[in-house]
Amino acid sequence: MRLVPLVLAVGLAAPAAAQDVVQGEALFGFYCATCHGNAAMGNGPMSPSLVVAPANLTALAATNGGVFPTSRVVMRIDGRDPLVSHGSMMPVYGDFFEGTDVATKAETGQPIMTSQPIVDLLAYLESIQQE
Q1: Which among 61, 55, 69, 57 is positioned nearest to 131, based on CA atoms?
Q2: 109 φ, ψ (degrees, to nearest 5)
Q3: Which of 64, 74, 71, 61 is nearest to 107 (CA)?
Q4: DSSP label at 42?
Q5: Directed axis angle between helix 70-78 and helix 116-127, to 10°?
Q6: Which uninterrupted H or E stretch holds 104?
Q7: What is the pLDDT along the chain (131 residues), one digit of tens a residue?
Q8: Whole-angstrom Cα distance, residue 13 to residue 65?
Q9: Rounded to whole angstroms, how far apart are CA atoms 88 and 68?
Q10: Which DSSP category does 105 fall into?
Q11: Hey, is 35 helix, strand or coil?
Q12: Using one digit for the tens of pLDDT, what is the confidence trace for 5-17?
């Protein structure tokens, strides 16, 4: 009978949010490509007007020792790590990315809370990393 509480505790633990690469790609195209470019290389049509050049998002892991910087990306998108690039904090569409908190795994293996749209964006960004 001791096993039942353990099984219940494990079963009730919040699982990491499901990631949807296709949804993340659609979100990226709609919200991010204007600055970061369709290929996510930092060369979108708005990039020349920004004070800080948009990052090449295909090289995030390569510039972080081969590890995708999940925590940094989440906090940059949701505003916990603000970047003022065009007179306001990035992203311009921050309100869209708010919502019900879900857990995803940081690069350390620890959970990090964010919203489902950001989890989907993470999945897409991780899928386009180049060496």
Answers
A1: 61
A2: 95, -10
A3: 71
A4: S
A5: 130
A6: strand 101-105
A7: 444 444 334 334 444 557 799 999 999 999 999 999 999 999 999 999 888 889 999 999 999 999 999 999 998 888 888 777 656 666 667 677 777 889 999 999 999 999 999 999 999 999 999 98
A8: 32
A9: 26
A10: E
A11: helix
A12: 443 343 344 445 5
Quote the tokens at residue 89.
């904090």
* Encoded amino acid at 5, one letter: P
E runs forming strands in 15-128:
101-105, 111-115
Instruction: Give the per-residue pLDDT at 5.
Output: 43
> Cα 3 to chain center, whole Å?
37
CA–CA dist 128, 131 (Å, integer): 10
CA distances to 10, 19, 30, 35, 63 from 116, in Å = 22, 8, 16, 22, 26
Tokens of 30: 């709609």
Matching residue, tokens 């990491």 = 16
- Reduce the DSSP state of residue 69 to 3 states and report it: coil
Location of structure tokens 């995708």: 68
Could you tell me the sign of the dihedral formed by the alpha carbons of 19, 25, 26, 31, in that order?
positive
Supply the pLDDT for residue 88: 66
